[in-house]
Specification:
The chain has one helix at about 5-45. The chain is mainly alpha-helical. The longest helix has about 45 residues, at about 5-45. The model has no long low-confidence stretch (mean pLDDT about 95).
């Protein structure tokens, strides 16, 4: 394997890693927003 193929492999692994990190972050923020909205709706009904 030459340097170019090694560099492309490293970049591909980094790209997939970033894809998973960003996807996980979006899922986390969506979940937090959903829980917060549900909590606010429960507080409205309780008052």
């Amino acid at each position: 394997m030459n340097f170019e193929s090694i560099a492309l492999s490293i970049l591909a692994v980094l790209a997939f890693g970033l894809l998973f990190v960003v996807t996980g972050g979006v899922l986390y923020l969506t979940n937090v927003e959903w829980r917060d909205r549900r909590r606010q709706e429960r507080e409205k009904k309780g008052r």
